[in-house]
Write a structure and sequence with these properties.
The complex is a heterodimer.
Chain A: H1 3-6, H2 17-30, H3 39-60, H4 62-72, H5 90-108, H6 112-138, H7 142-170
Chain B: H1 5-12, E1 27-34, E2 39-47, E3 53-61, H2 64-77, H3 82-86, H4 90-97, H5 104-141
Antiparallel strand pairs in B: 1-2, 2-3
Classes of the chains: A mainly alpha, B alpha+beta.
């Protein structure tokens, strides 16, 4: 059963998140383990609650949802399967290397402002690339979606690094 | 997931982090990445004209296992011939570092980086020799 099945939805990158969350609340209430006394039914309810929680986390986040839709199309990007081993273009890897080294220097100077400026650019790039991936997924163009989401993964790592730096400075 | 002691050792105390001049004709650069994790790894080898690896440097942005894998291979390849370095497999790397199955791709990345760096050096050398060969041909004809 897929995350979409739990909500009786067809797999799609396009979702009404507000409606999904309302539906999740309703379903979560119905399958709350405290509502049943029978131990077996209780266990099933607990399992269903856990599945619903996993599903909502993935589906409400546009990035994770796109990765998941790609997975349903046969490419699990964070795995060792052959289909996930796409070669990233050399100029892209060079660009990422350069950006990461630059961020490292900014971190060494403990300059949060510069890190934020870099993150803003990365964010824009990620959104743009995610839009391209979503478009490819709508057209069932798996190779394009795979490479685009590969890029999204790199942009996301960069943004996580900035977040970690911010937390480090705040603590 | 807990890292093995050897991974932690390399992660906390990575050897050979840095860069070599990528324009040096004796330096081969390998740049690899895996979208599975969003890691990027640069491995540079300084190779003598006789084909012996004299120095190795790396820079990796990624998880502890990716950093440890690249740190380990820079230690291993020094003093080796290119041919022997090409024989290093991800299995040996993973075994040495006791990498769990989910981290095997980090060792694959390190193996790919060595190969990419050596191929880069070979391509550079071939490009360097090509004009020389052309010049010899021209001299013969004259």
């Amino acid at each position: 059963m897929t995350h979409f099945d739990l909500f009786s939805l067809a797999p799609s990158v396009d979702l009404d998140v507000a409606a999904l969350e309302a539906q999740h609340r309703k379903l979560a209430m119905e399958s709350h383990p405290d509502r049943v006394a029978d131990p077996h039914a209780r266990r099933l309810a607990a399992e269903r609650s856990a599945a619903l929680n996993d599903a909502i986390k993935v589906l409400k986040d546009p990035v994770r949802r796109a990765f998941y839709v790609l997975e349903l199309k046969g490419v699990k990007l964070d795995s060792d399967q052959a289909a996930a081993k796409v070669k990233m273009p050399m100029d892209f890897l060079e660009e990422i290397m350069e950006q990461r080294e630059q961020l490292e220097a900014v971190k060494a100077r403990r300059n949060l402002e510069e890190a934020h400026a870099m993150a803003a650019k990365m964010h824009a790039l990620r959104d743009e690339t995610l839009a391209r991936a979503r478009d490819a997924l709508r057209k069932d163009d798996v190779p394009t979606a795979t490479t685009a989401l590969g890029r999204v993964r790199y942009y996301t790592r960069f943004l996580e690094e900035v977040d970690a730096f911010e937390e480090e400075l705040a603590s | 997931m807990a890292y093995s002691e050897k991974v932690i050792e390399h992660f906390e105390n990575p050897g050979n982090v840095g860069t070599l001049d990528k324009n040096d004709p004796n330096v081969g650069t390998g740049l690899v990445g895996a979208p599975a994790c969003g890691d990027v790894m640069r491995l540079q080898l300084k190779i003598s004209d006789e084909g012996v690896i004299q120095d190795a440097k790396f820079k990796t942005f990624g998880c502890g296992s990716a950093i440890a894998s690249s740190s380990l291979v820079t230690e291993w390849v020094k003093g080796k011939s290119m041919e022997d370095a090409m024989k290093i497999t991800n299995k040996e790397i993973a075994q040495e570092l006791s990498l769990p199955p989910v981290k095997i791709h980090c060792s694959v990345l390190a193996e790919d980086a060595i190969k990419a760096a050596i191929e880069d050096f070979r391509a550079k050398r071939a490009a360097r020799r090509a004009p020389e060969a052309a010049a010899t041909e021209a001299a013969k004809e004259a």
